[in-house]
């Protein structure tokens, strides 16, 4: 069936749902039940009302303490449960913002040129997968609680930390890897829209070209994370069980919570 359109939020980026994606066993992710986005630190009253209307009652925030201090605490509907699982932003390296905003092409090239930006993002994706298993295990455990209500998870931009969280959830539910990567890449629409509407700082074209790998998501980043999980644990099933600590019974409950017949 056709999905009802999601509300267009005013001050929250990259808001979308995971519903509708098919699993290998013939089911699909439930519509209008689990959502992802950028941060809610500057959400408008209309944004908060829209989230409330969707019935979202659990919000998982992957931002670091530094992110929260800079962007503001989440503005959420009254009574919404908030789970903070602080994780450093893979794209926010020390002094990265100052280097980019300098507009100095030579300085930016020295830090991010010759493939360094891409290599850094691949390495960060791998680290998220295998070094923050505590965070993503806690995330899946929360969503595997019996009767878990509609949920939202987010980081700052909603692309890297939230991207791996979405990939973990979808893979655990049985969605195929190609579809998981395709879902991950949808975050680039936010980047494209920001470029189109001038929402990014006015920077020289050469600087934007050099830092684009930090501002976008790429299939190679998703494959790097999935590959790292497999390399460390042998299989994705072992990654969920041994790495994230998700018992088989929890995984079945996760599927009961978030899947429906196709």
CATH superfamily: Protein tyrosine phosphatase superfamily
**Estimated radius of gyration:** 18 Å
Q: How many separate structural domains?
A: 1
Helix tally?
A: 13
Structural shape? globular
Give the biggest beta sheet: 5 strands, mixed
Q: Average pLDDT across residues?
A: 93
N- to C-terminal distance: 9 Å
The parts where pLDDT drops under 50 for at least 5 residues are: none
CATH topology: Protein-Tyrosine Phosphatase, Chain A
**Beta strand count:** 7
Order of helices and strands: EEEHEHEHHHHEHHHHHHHE
Q: Tags for this entry?
A:
globular, 7 strands, two-stranded antiparallel ribbon, 5-stranded mixed beta sheet
Give a written overview of the molecule.
The protein has one domain: Protein tyrosine phosphatase superfamily (Protein-Tyrosine Phosphatase, Chain A). The protein is 51% helix and 9% strand. The protein contains 13 helices and 7 strands. The strands form 2 sheets. The chain has a 5-stranded mixed sheet, covered by helices on one side. A two-stranded antiparallel ribbon has the order 2-7. Helix 4 runs parallel beside helix 10. The radius of gyration is 18 Å and the shape is globular.
């Amino acid at each position: 069936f056709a999905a009802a359109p999601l509300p267009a939020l005013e001050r929250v980026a990259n808001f979308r749902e995971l519903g509708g994606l098919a699993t290998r066993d013939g089911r699909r992710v439930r519509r209008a039940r689990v959502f992802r986005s950028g941060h809610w630190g500057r959400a408008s009253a209309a944004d908060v009302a829209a989230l409330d209307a969707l019935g979202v009652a659990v919000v998982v925030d992957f931002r670091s303490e530094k992110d929260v201090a800079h962007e503001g605490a989440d503005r959420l509907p009254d009574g919404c449960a908030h789970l903070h699982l602080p994780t450093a932003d893979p794209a926010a390296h020390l002094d990265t913002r100052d280097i980019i905003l300098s507009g100095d092409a030579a300085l930016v090239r020295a830090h991010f040129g010759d493939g360094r930006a891409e290599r850094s993002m691949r390495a960060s994706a791998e680290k998220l997968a295998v070094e923050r298993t505590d965070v993503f295990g806690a995330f899946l455990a929360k969503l595997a609680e019996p009767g878990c209500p509609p949920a939202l998870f987010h980081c700052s931009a909603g692309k890297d930390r939230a991207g791996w969280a979405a990939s973990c959830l979808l893979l655990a539910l049985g969605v195929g890897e190609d579809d998981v990567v395709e879902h991950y890449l949808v975050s680039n629409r936010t980047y494209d829209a920001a470029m189109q509407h001038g929402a990014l700082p006015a920077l020289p074209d050469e600087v934007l070209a050099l830092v684009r790998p930090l501002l976008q998501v790429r299939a190679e980043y998703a494959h790097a994370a999935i590959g790292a999980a497999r390399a460390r644990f042998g299989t994705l099933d072992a990654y969920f069980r041994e790495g994230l600590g998700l018992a088989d019974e929890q995984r079945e409950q996760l599927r009961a919570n978030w899947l429906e017949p196709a």
